[in-house]
Description:
It is built from three helices and no strands.
Amino acid sequence: MARITIEDCLKRVPNRFLLVHMATKRVRQIREGSEYLVSSSKNEDIVVSLREIAAGKVFIKQEDNKTDSKHLDDDTSDPE
Length: 80
């Protein structure tokens, strides 16, 4: 099997920080019993997770960011 590189993964993920987050989360899932999404033999869990990301089998779920209705600049008191 070919060597996996960070550049292979960055074709699917916009930045390195997100890549690290995705890979560590996937490793946790694998260690908790999740099945491999790509065929792999005798590889470390981190290598498997990176292979899965590079293959496009793993993606990040975007959650709706709800903002608090009270903002810092909503102060109704008059400073005068």
